[in-house]
Write a structure and sequence with these properties.
Elements lengths: L13 E3 L5 E3 L22
Antiparallel strand pairs: 1-2
Length: 46
């Protein structure tokens, strides 16, 4: 697993949206600010 430094550019990736389309992070570059938040323990059994 690669560690990304604070303030570094995020690597590009694509995800399926709830609208049944694919969203590509690179499509926002230079257009909008994007905040990525990761919850590593979401969806894991407790």
């Amino acid at each position: 697993m690669a560690i990304i430094a604070n303030g570094a550019d995020a690597p590009t990736f694509s995800l399926d949206s709830h609208l049944e389309t694919t969203v590509d992070l690179s499509s926002y570059k230079g257009q909008k600010n994007v905040l990525l938040v990761f919850y590593p323990l979401d969806f894991t059994p407790t």
